[in-house]
Write a structure and sequence with these properties.
Chain lengths: ~140, ~200
Amino acid sequence: MNADIHKLLRLKRYEAPTSDYFERFLDQFNERQRAELLRQPTWSLVWERFVGVFPDFHVPRLAYAGVAAAAVILSAVILLNQQGVTPAGPSFALNDPRPSATVLPSGRGDVRMPVTSRSDFPPHYVLEARPVSYESPYSF
Amino acid sequence: MSETREEQEINDVDLVARTQAGDPRAFDDLVRKYSPRLYGLVYNMTSNHEDTNDLLQDIFAKAYRSIKGFKGKSSFYTWLHTIGTNMTINFLKKRSRTYKMSLDDVDNGIHNDPEFLELTSGPDARREVNLKELQVRLNEAMMKLSNEHRAVVTMFDIQGMPHAEIGKILGISEGTVRSRLFYAHRQLQNYLQEFLVN
């Protein structure tokens, strides 16, 4: 041990707050404790009372793991049930909102094509057969 | 007459039991008893009075909230200092590097301290020491140490705790305490060369 350094550092114990600091500190501490008690949510106060009445009550060590496992199993069951309800096969054709072509009863094989407005499909802008996003960036 | 260490611990056991049973005045007694010592620990690690005051409030509040979980495996003193050291080190990790020192006044008792007299007026005194300058330089040197080294220096050199107690508080072996002290002293010797007599 370096004795000189030790002696020099020992002088730091003379740095101290004023004599009445510690009494004021206790008052401040008690005020703060009371203020915190008022801010505490109701459930927390109820829990504290409960623990006060049953001081030996402990949440079992594996309880959290058990709850987590139960949540995983429940989620899996719900997911499997949802998959069972979904009809088999591709569903996109059933959901196609566009009107289909119909054969006219003229006997000549006439077909009426559906009338679609421009607003039925999103606009698709193409410059020289290349999407805009594929254009090379500006370079100077 | 001052209490022996054993008497102090028996007294603490009683105060802790009363606090656990819901007597807040018992905890007030623990705050009165330990706030000066804990203040010294936090202050010498932060070099800032306001930070120390805020941290001390937080440390006692945390101790009060956790006291039901205190089983007496260590002394209350060790338990409280462990909370204090951990909270102070966490605070220092988040504190801005541009903080300002806010130092307490130096007690007049220092003028009668033999070590101070040796430093300032003995035949080997290297220079006339300005007390304020010495205080600032000591604090600057301390703040150059890492938080972990500063904690060990504060507890051993300033507060006079034995190596074993420091080890328990920090959760490290006595050997690690000694090696941290050795390294920290070497660093401090470089920073404080001009104040060292020999």
